[in-house]
Amino acid sequence: MIEINDVSFSYEGDNALNHISLKIEDGETVALMGSNGCGKSTLLKLINGIISPDSGSYKFDNQEINHKMLQDAKFGKSFHQKIGFVFQNSDTQLFCSVVYDEIAFGPRQMGMNEIEVDKRVNDCLTLLSIQDLKNRTPYHLSGGEKRKVAIACVLSLNPDVLVLDEPMNGLDPRTQRWLVEFLVQLSKAGKTLITSTHNLELVSEISNRAILFDEKHKIVADMPTEKLLEDIELLKKVNLVDEYYHSHEGNNGNGHKHFHDHN
Ligand SMILES: Nc1ncnc2c1ncn2[C@@H]1O[C@H](COP(=O)(O)OP(=O)(O)O)[C@@H](O)[C@H]1O
Ligand SMILES: [Mg+2]
User: Fold this and answer.
1) pLDDT per residue over 209-240, tens digit each?
2) Which of 135, 140, 246, 255 is most buried when burial is the number of CB atoms within 10 A of its CB?
3) Which CATH number fits domain 2-258: 3.40.190.10, 3.40.800.10, 3.40.50.300, 2.40.50.140?
4) Which residues form the signal peptide (predicted)?
């Protein structure tokens, strides 16, 4: 479904992706991991067609994706319907004055009639249990509420692939737990999930496969998430856990609960 072949990308000379190749199949749950600045957000932007490779190629459903293709309105629409992006910072994603219009934005862009739009918006409000936010102003919501609205906006187009950039960031533990369960349900419903995260405690619940970047913007591991979490030396090497990491494996049989996260 997603095929990235030898892609490099730089921001004004600053390298952010260094010869990246990977394939993601329909229905997979993948976590992108690595320390700050390693290129996770850049790769997610590329997957969503916000940026195009400087070299190499990106194919989605066997179709090459680049700026030229996305300028074609019809193609752009169908691509954006299939893949939804939840930004790291919900404030950059939410721009309408009312939650209802925010969630209706995508369906309206796709040219749906208002009856269909209304159905979609209400379905999403219900799915996320945020019916009471319908007439609120996104700007005034809490961080957790904003994240739910941002997710509702993306789900309103019922995409096959959901891309989430550090979705746990800034959420309280209870909302993080809610989000984990919600993502698990989406995965069970057949969605492909691609998530960037620093959260070593929750990552194994939202992904089966982990792709690890080093600080040179290269992929250094692509393996089952559980396996990566056991490889402390590798996690140290890419600066994801620090020297003070200590496992409590002997005490409670669960070493993952005691990671010292850098962020
Ligand atoms: N808009 C931008 N302009 C210039 N450099 C950027 C921009 N966004 C990211 N970078 C740089 O690209 C590299 C990768 O960043 P990013 O993909 O945001 O990393 P991550 O999401 O893993 O923290 C970093 O060196 C970062 O400073
Ligand atoms: Mg990032």
Assistant:
1) 999 999 999 999 999 999 999 999 999 999 88
2) 255
3) 3.40.50.300
4) none
154-209 pLDDT per residue, tens: 999 999 999 999 999 989 999 999 999 999 999 999 999 999 998 899 999 999 99
Ligand sitting nearest the alpha carbon of 262: 1
Chain segment 136-160, per-residue pLDDT in tens:
999 999 999 999 999 999 999 999 9
Which residue from 8, 9, 12, 14 has its CB within 8 A of the most atoms of ligand 1, so it is best to mutate? 14
Least confident of 21-35, 83-97, 203-217, 234-248: 234-248
Quote the ligand 2 centre to 69 CA distance (angstroms): 26
- Cα 142 to Cα 15, 54, 97, 207: the distances in Å are 35, 38, 15, 27
Count CB neighbours of 11 within 10 A. 9
- Residue 82 CA to residue 96 CA, distance in Å, equals 23
Q: Are strands 83-86 and 161-165 parallel, antiparallel or unpaired?
A: parallel
* Cα distance between residue 228 and residue 135, in whole Å: 44
Ligand number nearest to the C-alpha of 14: 1
